Structures are given as structure tokens and as C-alpha cells.
Amino acid sequence: MKQMRPHTTGIGLALLFLIIGSGAGVGAQNYRGEAVPVAERVDPVSFSRIRFLTFAFGREGPSATPLTTQPVAGREYFVEADVFGIESVASIHFELVDGAGRGLGAVPSMWKASDGSTDGEFYGFITVPKEPFRVAVSGVYASSATFRSVFDTLFQPAAAGASDESLLPPGLDANQAKRLQDTLADYRKELLARSSKAAREHPDGVIRLDRAAVSAISYEPLLNGASAPIGVRLRYTIEFPSQKVITAVPHVFPVYSQWDWRGVVTMKALGGTVTPEPEMVAAQSMKDVIVYGAAAIYKARKKYTFVIDMAPDYVFQGTVSGKFCLYDQRPSNRAAFQAILASPDPVPYSLTISDTQTTARIPSFFPQRVFYDNFKAAGAVDCGPTPNIRF
């Protein structure tokens, strides 16, 4: 449907906001359409870090910590790699090279830490060669252009070294130390199993980064029981070429021309649906996925339909009564917040689903003044200096 653009001067503006404020008639039907896709800047791939790790037992259990000595030739180490600009990559390949840049072999055991399109963290195991070496990444962008980036550090393997002792807390007796060492050994086995799985999935070392297919994102006013706009309702579908564990609820915020207003208000999910429902991670619920933006498991070759209702972040809903309160006593940016609520001007909104590399823009939508006034007119009270949702 073609978007209706409001007049912004004189009697036209006054009449428009009388209609919008009441939530009836034409005002409630305005601001519907499809968000306009925004092309993200393509950053060149750069290999920003590679770390050799050893295992340690900390407060939260087994973990990996940076190796404090040179790696020893012939030994296998757990490694962490960070690659910047991964969101524009279609496939990536890790390899070892000597000081002159000649190849020493692929590293097929690497895997990507998460399914998020912007997450450039990788893990894996590397067997250290005898000669000095660097680690390099190469691959293909989504545009089909190729890239290569070599990490600056030239590692000088030690010919020999003390056995790799896992780091344990001080003051343990022999039995406690053995139990923790066994736990760390099991942790290492789990990571080795993950590494073996990665090697089976891409024996040539080429990690292919397929992308989710996100439909156009439609938007419309979110209305209360009196048909007055209190936020935005978003509708879209996502289809996944392979199973993904991601966050698929958008981050939405108004884009003000005044720089000191930016970031003062964002939109948050009040509720919604995902059909079919994704699988939960651990003990999550659909409320965790929609309202709190938790990741969920989305199956391959399934199309998921999202309907997400979003309201301003200064609105809190009571868990007992279901009623709303307005947090307008916020301690920071108070002057900017009050100026935002006083502004009658429609404003564009930015919309991002970062885990799917989706960015779009709602060109013009209701100002915060409309949402705030309609919540208040429907009975929303002041949240007080410290919001509490138990009401």
C-alpha cells in the first residue's frame, strides 16, 4: 500500500495529531508499508588475532586461557582466531605459511564460534610445524571477489618444552587436583570431538558461510484496545539453508537528526509470534526469544513467519496486572528525552537483524509523543524513579 505522507505545517498538522491522538479513523491507518533495505558497507577482511591457548579451571569451570610460552613443534594446541569483516564473506580457509609466505598446509579443524553473520570468532586445533610460521586466511566474498589476509606475527616454535600442564587453582590436595585435571581432560576431549566434526564437514578446510533468506519486512501501527497507536508491528519471514542458532528479532530505534537525541529511546519487543516455533536452547521459552532477544534453533529449509510487536523502551508492562507504566524519571539524558516527547515530527526508524545481516529503514513513522500520550491516555502510570515490573 502506498504510504500516506502527513502534512507538516499549519492546520494540516493540528488536524493530523487530533486524529492520531484519538487513534481513530485515517490516523490509525497511516504509516504502513515495507521497510526499505539498506546496503551495508562491505569491510575488507582482516585477520586481527590468533592465540594459542591452554586449559585452565576457573570460577566458572573449565576454560581456555592464552599460552604464556612459545608453542612447541609437533604439539597440538587449541587456538582462537578473530577475523574482521566476516559479514561479507561467502567462504573462508585457514592455513599455515612459512616466513616467505609458502604454504605449509590447510587447517581443516577450524569452526565458527556462532551462526551470527557478524561474528568473526573461530576455534580449532593446530599442530605446530618445526619451522617458523604464520597463520593466514583466504576465501571468497559474497560478491565472488577473493581475499587473503596473513597474520603479522611470525611464530618461532620451540624445539622442546615442559609438558602442557593445565592450570588449576592453588591450594588443592592431590585428590582435588586429580578430579579437576580429569574434568579439564574431558573438556579437551569435547573440543577435539568438535574439531573432528569440523574436519569431516569441510576436509578441504573451506568453511562455507551460507546466509539466511529474509523477506521484505512490513510495518504497521501497533494499536491498543482503543485503536490508538502505541508502537510498531513488524511482519517478515526467514528461511535458513542450514540449521542456525541465532537471534532473529530486530533491533529498532528512531533515527533523529539531532545527534544528542540518538540512542535516548529505542523500541523493544512486547510480544509476538514465530510460526512454526523454533527449538529452544536449554530452558528457554518463546518469551525469552521474542521479548528478551535470546537465540533459538532454526531448522534447515523451513520458512519461519515472524510477527513482532514493539513499543518504546520507556514503557514497562506489569507481570501481574498486564498494565503499563511510563519511565519518564530516567536519570540520564533527561533533557533530550523530554525534547523527544515534545516533538510532533514523524521520524524514520532503523531496523537491524544483525545475525542475518539484515538492515532496513522505515522512512517515516509516528513520533514518540504519540506513543507516550496514547499509553498515558489508556491509564499508564508513572513507573517512579526505579521501574519494577512486579505490579
Tell me what the structure shows:
The protein is an alpha+beta fold. Helices cover 17% and strands 37% of the residues. The protein is built from 5 helices and 25 strands. The protein has helices spanning 10-22, 174-201, 286-290, 334-342, 368-377, and strands spanning 33-34, 36-37, 46-58, 61-66, 76-84, 89-98, 103-106, 111-112, 121-127, 133-141, 146-150, 206-208, 213-214, 218-223, 229-239, 244-246, 251-254, 267-275, 296-298, 303-312, 315-317, 324-326, 347-353, 358-365, 381-382. Strands 1, 13, 14, 15, 18 and 20 form a 6-stranded antiparallel beta sheet that branches. Strands 4-3-5-9-8 form a 5-stranded antiparallel beta sheet, covered by helices on one side. Strands 6, 7, 10, 11 and 12 form a 5-stranded antiparallel beta sheet that branches. β14 (218-223) and β15 (229-239) form a beta hairpin. The model is unreliable at 1-29 (pLDDT under 50).
